[in-house]
Amino acid sequence: MADRYDVVIVGGGVMGCAVAYFLANDPGFGGTVAVVERDPTYQRASSALSASSIRQQFSTPANIALSQFGLSFIRNATEHLSVDGDPVDLGLREPGYLYLATGAGADILRRNNAIQRSCGADVALLSPEELTARFPWLSAEGIALGSLGLSGEGWFDGYSLMQAFRRKAKALGVTMIAGEVAGIDTADGKVTAVRLADGQRLSCGVAVNAAGPQARRVATMAGVDLPVSARKRCVFVFDCREELPGCPLVIDPSGVWFRPEGKQFICGAPPPADRDPDTDNLTVEHDLFEEMMWPALAERVPAFEAIKVTNAWAGFYEYNEIDQNAVIGPHPELRNLLFCNGFSGHGLQQAPGAGRGLAELIATGAYRSLNLSAFAYDRLVENRPLLETNVI
């Protein structure tokens, strides 16, 4: 193994592997790339524990563009990520997202819809009567408006996407290193090396922080503050005796969401603020389902009054505490330290676009095909939050 690389990427989840793939696949780059991952089993990785959904219903054009590229990439995954001719099946399904709003939130949906449609998203606003006509199993009690993605939204196998990026990057010559990052050396306004716990020192021309829930810890090693914390999100699997034809991913005004998963359903919700700390604990909190999620589910879908939880898991959101949006691009002082962090729950769908953008920035010095400057670190220190109203 070499002790110097042109690019060292800290974190081998979907973000790190996406950046590595796009760099290695760029004919104009030609440099050496290493990805350092502390847990190659990925047992606690966000990429393995995500609900892996994709949508275009954001309120900011930059997020919409990222996910639109992600959708195109996922639809054509075999073309991009096949190794030795093997097909890449990511199990993409596109039944849509359905956001529901009370009277207090209806104007937000209308404003968002105008932005989404101006960006080419296929999204329709539905009255309560139109909602129940289209989804007879749904109760529109208390609902003033719904926003439904008619195409280009759904869910997929996020773990398989991460593994496909990783496998293809390796085939293109990227070095995968299993190790814990213990320090980052800097000098004269630059990162000079990434140090591992086993004593290895990887000199580099560029360092990329793609450490997911560990992003803040890694940034601190370089003397940089990054307001990204690890927040736990619990997902519950449940059976329902009745079928829900055409069920999309539904986001209730309460914040509870649900969608089909095979013949079952999965659901989740952000916990109350006083139960949402920065944590490394992935113990499932079953009382959240009993006390918060089930009542909201039963109110929205009468068939959910009689359901049975069959499984549950918890995973991490890498949560940007400032504006719940990604931080992508260089640090303003350590210019060769690049961030790919803080996606706050929509990272898997945006990994292809973020990976391509950072690879272009590294290889050419600029964003070429997708301008990601809205996600720059500078906005955090200049108090210019990129506010997103559609956060779940």
UniProtKB/TrEMBL annotation:
GO terms for cellular component: cytoplasm. It comes from the Bacteria. InterPro entries: FAD-dep_OxRdtase (IPR006076), FAD/NAD-bd_sf (IPR036188). Keywords: Oxidoreductase, Plasmid. This is FAD-dependent oxidoreductase domain-containing protein 1. The gene is foxred. The keyword rRNA-binding does not apply. Pfam families: DAO. GO terms for biological process: mitochondrial respiratory chain complex I assembly. The keyword S-adenosyl-L-methionine does not apply. GO terms for molecular function: oxidoreductase activity. Residues 6-361 form the FAD dependent oxidoreductase domain.
